[in-house]
Give the backbone structure.
Amino acid sequence: MSHTPIPIDSVDVLLLDLPTIRPHQLSVTTMRRQKLVLVRVRAADGVTGWGEATTIGGLAYGEESPESMRVNIDAYMAPLLLGADATSPGARMRDLRTHLQGNRFSLCAIETALYDAQARRLGVPLSSLFGGRVRDSLPVAWTLASGDTERDIAEAERMLEQKRHRIFKLKIGARDVLADVAHVAAIKRALGDHASVRVDVNQAWSETDAMLGMGMLEQAGVDLVEQPIAAGNDEGMRRLRRMNRIPLMADEALHGPTDAFRLAECRASDVFAIKITQSGGLRGAQQVAAIAEAANVGLYGGTMLEGAVGTIASAQLFSTFTELAWGTELFGPLLLTEDILRTPLDYRDFSLHLPSGPGLGIDIDEEKVAFLQRRSGRGA
């Protein structure tokens, strides 16, 4: 049977600047707003696919900003896509990567949009294009990042009572090690065995600080420490892992399959935080998971605090992983004051439940998106 190509008609980048429900404090920045970066790909058959390339704090976290992504997609990526066959996402991504360097977040958004459209075209969930689901729901952690101990305890207790989250990750590293550990230990004591407590240091500690902090955090009952030292210090991560019993997770050090192979080879972490944007797309993240499985490294489904599109794209892929022992952190939409879906994502019983519809399985409210884009300002 001959194949009839379906040309791509348009590629649009939409920036939506949305307030968060409360300040979100990290060691690198304090977020009070999140700028969503949405990519919409429309083809000649009328099928539309959506992707997302949201990052944290502009350039505070990574080398791509919302504004640079819009410029680079408009100027360099869209011209390579327009008129090309929409039904071959793999070929389109090969073309882009052949002509472009870097731009992992932008490429992830485009790849997601292409696969979303193709799955809609075929009438199947996006997860079916990546081997199919082994689970229909994913446990979701909540990040406690107000910086105030009593406020964080109250927030965690409220989440437990609502059966929304029972895994809590604390953002630390902005204060000295002893103050950070005291803050975390107080929260763990308050929550007891009702919840898992983990920490993310976002590279803020020296190796010496990390050695001290990890030992104390283990004694406090903390389950996991994420990226305590600089991403390039693989030997330091290996030493920390060898000298401590508390599991160590790589995050900022993990930019796709090449990094995953290197970290697994030098045994620098017990757990990988997989992010589809950091991996350069869905296929890259799938390869990271395969490397982790082969190396007996645990998996955690990470987030860039995306909105609904990036969150459900991640969930579609994570649902196909054979092993996901450390759960996920796909709470991004819950941190925002606005929703862009006609039907919100289904968070209940401590989990995110995946939709059953085709593609990403979501229905974008394009009128709401247009309104929020106008409110944000075209140049915002």
